[in-house]
Amino acid sequence: MNELKILVNDTLKGNKRSLSRLISIIEDDYNKAIEISTLLPLERRKVFKIGVTGSPGTGKSTIISKLITFYREKNLKVGVVAVDPTSPITGGAILGDRIRMQEHYSDEDVFIRSLASRGYMEGTTRGCSVVLDLLSAAKFDVIFVETVGVGQIGFSILDVVDILVLVIMPESGDFIQTMKAGILEIADIIALNKAEKQGAEYMKRMLESSFESSQIPKKVPIIFTSEILNNGYEELYAELEKIHFESGNDIESKAKNVRLNKFIKNLQLMFLENLPNILNRGELKEIQDKVEFGEISPSVAANIAYKKIVNYC
Ligand SMILES: Nc1nc2c(ncn2[C@@H]2O[C@H](COP(=O)(O)OP(=O)(O)OP(=O)(O)O)[C@@H](O)[C@H]2O)c(=O)[nH]1
Ligand SMILES: [Mg+2]
Prior knowledge:
Blueprint: H1 3-12, H2 16-28, H3 30-39, E1 48-54, H4 60-73, E2 78-84, H5 91-100, H6 102-105, E3 110-116, H7 124-137, E4 142-148, E5 163-168, H8 174-181, E6 189-192, H9 200-214, E7 222-224, H10 233-246, H11 248-279, H12 282-292, H13 298-312
Parallel strand pairs: 1-4, 1-5, 2-3, 2-4, 5-6, 6-7
Helix pairs in contact: 1-2, 2-3, 2-7, 3-7, 4-10, 12-13
């Protein structure tokens, strides 16, 4: 058996060291990520994937750490993946996550991991989605995906989660940023964190009025959370569970979209990655040579090549 198969088998049996090793391989090597995804069993069990997004330092990791406690009380296995697609691995951020979620590190049924976009920027979505498949196959029940921002190049958290929690805090200019990025419209729950600070109530009113004026169809719950006062977390958890169970159908239809999107994205990435190889074969190679020597215009050639590829199917 090759190394990847052994690692996948061990991961499915619950070996966290093998899981960690596989994630490093996924981060580093796009083709191996593809191979790993083909080794995973089809996962039909419902895994609840919760996206937690917001500007740096708003308190995402702190909130996740508090929420983990509730899910662990129900004896569910919890995974956390922190993705930062904008910067290469930074010791600081990872250290921060470790400190924030420290109390859970020794728990056998909690797995926390930061993902960096080391090797292949464009593949971050794919990398993250393979990691989530891996965690699902390893029988994690709830998976948190922490990201800074929502729609950076090559990565959209919405492609991979069931529910999105937006974390914002008062006094930070965060509100304007959030509005600009259009994140309000896609959030399912807003955690107004650091709620002990002045300005929290004011910010809530601003949010509510912007919901009214912007005709966003759904009413997004806004929940105050505070580490200092140690409150709001239970309410946030209850809201997550409510959306999770009450809108079961909604989540299933979202899950269908997620699966389909994943299929299409994978295919796109495979094409992009392998196009140079495809073009080096047979008739396509001849067309490529003609373009190179100026015997045919690149756009006409692209058109012919495209038709040949499509007809081949
Ligand atoms: N005053 C106050 N500080 C908080 C609260 N929640 C979190 N913090 C602090 O805010 C800082 C950042 O918290 P994190 O949970 O690491 O924030 P984050 O959004 O995960 O940060 P990045 O991952 O670096 O983007 C830490 O020092 C926390 O202790 C809160 O409710 N009130
Ligand atoms: Mg964090």
